[in-house]
Every structure is written in C-alpha cells, then in structure tokens.
Amino acid sequence: MTDKVPLSWSNLTCGYAEGFRLSLPDGQLEKGKVFGLAGPNGSGKSTVLTTLTGLFKPLQGQVTRAPMTKVSCLFQVPRQTFISLTVQEVLESAVKNPKLPLSELGDPFGIASLWQTSFHLLSEGQKQRVLITRAFLGKPDVLFLDEPTNHLDAPRRETFWQTLAHFTKVGMAVLVIEHDSEKLRRHVNRLVDLETLT
Amino acid sequence: MKLATALRLGFVPMSLILMLYLADTFGTHKWSDFVQAWPLWNQTLIIGSLFGAVLGLAGFWLLAENAVYTGLTVSAAAVLGLQITDFCLALSGLTLNPLATFTIAASLGLLFIQSATALSTHTSGRDAGNASAYLTALAGSILISDLISQGHHEMESLIFGNSVGLLPSDTLLAGIASFILLTVALQHNRHWLGLVFDSDFLSVQGMPTKSWRLSLTLMTAFSLIVGVKLFGLLTAFSIALFAPLAAVRLARSGRSGQLASFLFGALLFPTGFALSFLLDLPTGAMIAVTGFLMATLAGLIMSLKSRSINPNLFF
Q1: ipTM of the prediction greater than 0.85, yes or no
Q2: What's the CA gap between B171 and B161, in Å, rounded?
C-alpha cells in the first residue's frame, strides 16, 4: 500500500456462501484515477461494491485500506423511513455543519434551494442530487458511486461527470458502477466488465 | 421552527383542550373538582408529564426504526421481568431496594426478549419472533401472578395502568431515568437521525454505527421498561405510540418531529388522566383512547392538506 493507493484488493471472491459468488481480478484504486465497474442486472456489481466498502465480508481474499483513509459512497436511494428528514438533516449525517462545505463545493447540483424540504417529498432526480452532494461533501480520499447518474437529466449528468473530473484532478480515488460499459468507458481510467468475468 | 409548522403542531394541544372542555360539560365530574383535588395527584401528574415526554421521544425513535412491534414486545417482556422478580422475592422472603428490584426486573425482561427473538428470528422473521415473545411474556406473567398473593392486582396494574398508585421510589426512578435517557438522546440526536436514514453510508465512512444502534436500542428499551413499571403497559405504550404518531404526521423535519413527540408525550398523560376523572372512566384505557384520538385528528388535518404529503407514511 503506497501513498498513491488508498485501497486495494487481492485474491477477492465476494458473494454468498450458499449462492452467488464472483471472483474479481486483483486491483486497486489510485489517487486521481477513476475505476469503472460495469455489468448487467444480477452480474454482481452491488455485491462487489458492498464488499469493497467493507459492508460485506469477502468469502475469500482481502480488501486493504490505507490508514486514515476517508471513504464516502453513494448507494441506491435509502429505504423509506416513517419520519421526515429535511435535506439539511440528511447532509448533517455526513458533516456537522454542511452549509460551509456546500458553499466551498459551489453547490454544483443546486440543492441549497431544497434546504428545508423533506427528503421524501423530493423527486427521484432531486433525491439523487442530494445524495451525490452528500457523497462529495466530506472531501473523501476514496469515493464509491453506485449508478450515480440514475434519475439525472442530461445537464445534471454532465455536471456530475465534470464534478467528478474536478475531484479526481485534486487526488480523489473513485470507483464508479454503471450498467452501460460504453457510457462508462469515456469517463474512467480503467474498466472491468463483470459480464466477461462470469 | 416555521410559523406554519408551529401552527400545525399547535393543533394537538388545542384539540386536547377541546376534549377537556367537552368532558367538563358533559362528564360526571367537573373541572373545578379536579383542580380542588390537585394535592391528591400532583405528584402523579408531574411524573406522568415528565416521563410521558421521555416516552414520546422514545416512541419517535421506535417509529423511525420501524420497530413499533418490537417496542410492544419489550413492554410485555418488562411486565414478565417485574412479575418474575416479585415472585422470586415473595418466594425467598427477601426485600430489596426498589431500584435494585427494577434493575433485576429490567434485565430479566430484556434477557427474555433477546432469547425469544433470537430463537425464532432465523427461521420465521422478526414479526413472528416478536409475536411469539409478546404472547409468551404476557401468558407467563399471568401464570406467575397466579402464584403470588395479591398477584392478580399487581398484574392488572402492570398491564392496564394503575397510575394513581405511584410510590416515592417511582418518583426517584422517573427522575433518574429521565435525566439519563434525555442526556443520551440529546448527545446522539444527529447520529441517530443519520443512522435511521442511511446506516450503510455511515458504516462506510467508518462511523461507530454498531455502538450508536446499541445506544438507541437501550434508550428506547429502558424508556419503555421504566414506563411500564411506572404506568403499566397500556398507558406507557400508548404514550410511546400515539404521541410520536401525531407528531410525525404534523412535523416536516426530524427535529420538529422529535420536539413535537416530546411535547405531545408530556401532554397526553395529564390530559388522559384528567379526562378519566371527568368522565369517571379507567385511567390507562382513557389515556390510550385520548392518544388514539390525538393521532387520528392529526392524520385528519394532514389529509385535508394532503397535496404535499406522501400517503405511504401513514398506517
């Protein structure tokens, strides 16, 4: 593990003991680089993601994180809870006072106007913009993104890729998952198509 | 808090005042009689209001965690724990400090629910585990109460709520428990909101989500257990359910929902208690019905303004 590699994996098999399992070629996330993972539904993208983030234990092999690495993520929209949280409260789960880092970020996804709106009343696209912003807020060293452009309109998709390019330029290591490998190829430094592994 | 939110939340105290007015007009007793007898029940009402607020807040987190049925089961397990402790003390002839008795009872109750749900969750899911534990706890409590002299009376108090019979030790218990539980809740507020919204995100960030969840579970469980000891299952759980249910229907943020749950919990006990006096009806059941009316009216007012509310958030 070097300064340039905040996260790596080797000999990795992820999945379930009695069910789906997938072996991933050894790899690493490098600072300033975007690693792409593509594949159709059921190919194991989310299983790989949850294993690399540490939420699932691998069946075999290991994921190594450099000490003091700040990690953030964007998963699919979280389950509906019975209570209403405002956008501000959602962002506060990432950082204590989100207004300052949001203004430093330049609010690329235009969520300042939604500040006091209940998250569950937002459209799917607005929810995705809030969750993308939350993922970027803490300026992590490593960022995992699960289908980040879902529900975004064309201009917002463009904004997203520009923002990602900006952060990778300043040293963030990123893993992006998408269905469409062709769409992803244009934005990543390395691409693994899970369909070719199974 | 915005004026619109304050007005919406103010609807609940207004409706409670209206209920009291109607009970005063058409009831068996008069409000003036209730006020005259204040020295008789001032301690009960103060404890009821204080710990009702704690129960309202605990109930908010039960709703947020989709764990209402688990909360009901914890309450039933508390009844069992208290009955087992009473039985053991009666059998051995020992007397214990009330707080020590309560601690043993709470531990027994929690141990029971942990064992019962762990046994059934793997094969039949959380609901089935909770239902099994709930039924067994109540059945076990009734059977044990049969073995203790005065057991039936105790059992009735524990289930249906004999809130008039508070002891001096209950005041101490309510005071200590309220202080501890509210301190923990205030300290963890932001973490718990994040946890119920998206615990995976926090886990990936390396946050201690397991210890946060443990503190949340213990806060809600001990609030319910103390509530059952003080007011009985029906009263305690009614406050923990209906106060936050009314609150989350009217509130538009996590913080206003918590504040409203706290305030509605504080109001529900004294209002239900006064109504039971005015109408000459059982206290625990009256508090439960008052809570139900409060939550239903809150739902009604929001459905009248429903252009901005997601119907999936209701029952």
Answers
A1: yes
A2: 16
Is residue B314 within 8 angstroms of chain A, CB to CB? no
Residue B117: is its pLDDT beyond 90? no
Q: In terms of residues, how long is chain A?
A: 198
Residue A92, chain B, CB below 8 Å: the answer is yes
* Radius of gyration for the alpha carbons in chain A, expressed in angstroms and rounded: 17
In this complex, do B197 and A120 lie within 8 Å of one another by their Cβ atoms?
no
What pLDDT does A95 receive? Answer: 81
Distance between CA atoms of B216 and A157, rounded to whole angstroms?
A: 38
Q: What share of chain A is helix, strand, coil (3-state, %, to 5)?
A: 35, 25, 45
Residue to mutate among A46, A81, A130, with most B CBs inside 10 A, is: A81
pLDDT in tens, A16-35: 877 888 888 898 999 999 99
Q: What is the pLDDT of residue B163?
A: 55
Secondary structure of chain B in HEC code, one letter for each residue: CCHHHHHHHHHHHHHHHHHHHHHHHHCCCCHHHHHHCHHHHHHHHHHHHHHHHHHHHHHHHHHHCCCHHHHHHHHHHHHHHHHHHHHHHHHHCCCCCHHHHHHHHHHHHHHHHHHHHHHHHHHHHHHHHHHHHHHHHHHHHHHHHCCCCCHHHHHHHHHHHCHHHCCHHHHHHHHHHHHHHHHHHHHHHHHHHHHHHHHHHHHHCCCCHHHHHHHHHHHHHHHHHHHHHHHCHHHHHHHHHHHHHHHHHHCCCHHHHHHHHHHHHHHHHHHHHHHHHHHCCCHHHHHHHHHHHHHHHHHHHHHHCHHHCCHHHCC
pLDDT at residue B150, as a whole number:
66
- Eight-state DSSP code of residue A194: G
CB contact A83 to B (< 8 Å): yes
How far apart CA B110 and CA A7 sit, in angstroms, is 41
Angle between helices B254-279 and B233-250 (to 10 degrees): 130
Q: Which two tokens stand for residue A77?
A: 């929209």
Q: How many angstroms separate the CA of residue A196 from the nearest CA in chain B?
A: 28
- Answer whether A53 sits within 8 Å of B204, measured CB to CB: yes
CB contact under 8 A, B257 and A84: yes
pTM of the predicted model as reported, rounded to 2 decimal places: 0.87
Q: How far is B116 from chain A (nearest CA, A)?
A: 26
Q: What is the mean pLDDT of chain B?
A: 85
